[in-house]
Amino acid sequence: MKASDSIASARRAFLGSAGKATLSVAAIALLAGNDALAQGATAGMQDVNILNVALGLEHEAINAYQLGAQSGLLTKPVLDVAVLFQSHHKGHRDALVATIRKMGGTPVAEKSMDEYAKALNAAAIKSQADILELAARLELGATNAYLGVIPAFRDAGLAKVAGRLAADETMHWSILANTLGKPIPMAALTFGA
Q1: Mind listing the pLDDT tens digit for each residue in 111-131?
Q2: How far apart are CA 93 and CA 77, in angstroms?
């Protein structure tokens, strides 16, 4: 199984378990006789769980770019772009953490660098192109994940933020794909499918 397949599988499992956690919050509110609170808890916790999945993606991206930066395989101009993209992901992370906390949730913890290295199969990275391919795959996956969750948000403001995050990820993917010499997508509606 490829690292990208196991990451996608983990995301699906996390999203599936997120719904189960929100039901228990809603059940407690229903038992207390507060139907409005039950609906609000379900919606709020659903949004927090989606944000935590997004936060997991940002942790992964930050660490992937760190692995690339530390590899010694990137030329100076490419390293500069990688560090810039990593700073974007750190900004995304900080915004997500603040929002999750504001909503009463607990942000998902970042894993160790060793865990990310193993999950991303860093041992197989032998060249700058390998690093760029990995980064492009992660950026495309994040783009599609953000676009895919927009309809699930109960809060329109959060959906807008997810759209902005998807735009950043798409920009990252486009630059990486161009650097790798990949062709421009020929079909309309390429992302989010």
Answers
A1: 999 999 999 999 999 999 999
A2: 24
Nearest to 136 by CA among 96, 93, 179, 76: 179
Which tokens go with 163?
């759209």
Architecture per CATH, domain 44-179, reads as Up-down Bundle (1.20)
Q: What is the CA radius of gyration of the chain?
A: 18
Among 67, 56, 47, 62, smallest CA distance to 7 is for 56
8-state DSSP, 106: -
Q: Which residues contact residue 21 at a Cβ distance below 8 angstroms, ignoring those fewer than 6 apart? A: 45, 49
SS3 75: coil
Reported as half-sphere exposure (CB side, CA atoms, 13 A), residue 82 has a value of 29
Q: Where are the domains of the chain?
A: 44-179
Query: What is the per-residue pLDDT across 47-70, written as a single tens digit (0 to 9) for each?
Result: 999 999 999 999 999 999 999 999
Contacts of 120 (CB under 8 A, 6+ apart): 3, 60, 63, 64, 67, 134
pTM of the full predicted structure? 0.78
Q: What does residue 18 show for φ and ψ, rounded to 5 degrees?
A: -65, -40
Confidence band (pLDDT; 50, 70, 90) for 42?
low
